[in-house]
Amino acid sequence: MLKGRWIWLFFMVCCCKCIVGQGLDANLLNSINPQNPASRYWQQTSNSVYWAGYTLPAGTLIYGLVSGDQNVKHASYDLLISIGTNVLITDVLKRSFNRTRPMDAHPGMIFSTPSSDMSLPSGHTSLAFATATTLSLQCKKWYVTVPAYAWAGSVAYSRMYLGKHYPSDVVGGALVGIGSGYASHWLNRKLFKRYYRNRMYEQ
């Protein structure tokens, strides 16, 4: 049910984009993207999704295996399933929509470095929100949730500042990431329901 809702929301966004055309999207992006998007802060923020999105679950898994901590190990499974699901869905959608990058569609208006893949949805944004959502579902503490989503939102903004994605690409990426996080959280508990049932009884 929940999975169907986020997919429906994503396609509603895409439909709205098609209705208004790329003009509004491009104008919004133009107001964010400078002629020389050279800020190292936003470049590093954009790149942070790689070490946070990939090293966090790998490091968590290694620690869980070495220490024998079952809670940490299952937390890493949650992250790995979330990221794997997110990468697969994002890739399928990029190929399906086949949307041209904004700097290629609007030369002289949007400024960025060349990119080899398609624009919709934003992969950086979807990975950031998948990671943030999974961490938030695992910890359920405001001091984890707020920084996690603040970081994911910063990654999303950085993709527009750098001219890599339209605002609708970023919104679509955020919805895919959040949906992947919830779907993986549900799947992880189905796959390891005996572990989570025993853990509930122990508490």
UniProtKB/TrEMBL annotation:
Highest taxon in the source lineage: Bacteria
Pfam families noted in UniProt: PAP2
Gene3D superfamilies: Phosphatidic acid phosphatase type 2/haloperoxidase (1.20.144.10)
Protein name: Phosphatase PAP2 family protein
Residue stretches making up the Phosphatidic acid phosphatase type 2/haloperoxidase domain: 76-185
